[in-house]
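Good morning C.,

I know you're traveling, so I'll keep this short. The sequence:
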Amino acid sequence: MVATASAEVVKLQADLKGGNEVPPNSSSGSGKAEATYDTETKILSYTVTYAGLTGPAMGAHFHGPVEAGKNGGIVLPFKTVQSPIQGSATLTDNQATDLLAGKWYANIHTAMNPGGELRGQMLK
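The tokens, ready to paste straight into the viewer:
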């Protein structure tokens, strides 16, 4: 069996906090997003955990493609909003390029912060 030299599993993570939102908020909540992306199968697997929100999570997604400090549209909705959020998805080549370039962020939305309460840029 021959392994392809170019295949790799890339680890990405983000610290989720209100100060990362655009505009920032004063939420005392915090969280973490951890993911792996397999360049051969194109599968992104992720786990997102959070605590201390101002209320129940109303939405949770990956957004992009933008750099930190800007807002982007939803690129990958999560199947649940309850922590721990776990899932996987097969990405397109364009999505993978944006993700690996640091242009995706994880975002947790609440009623008090509908634009997002906790956010973190996914970085290697």
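Safe travels,
E.
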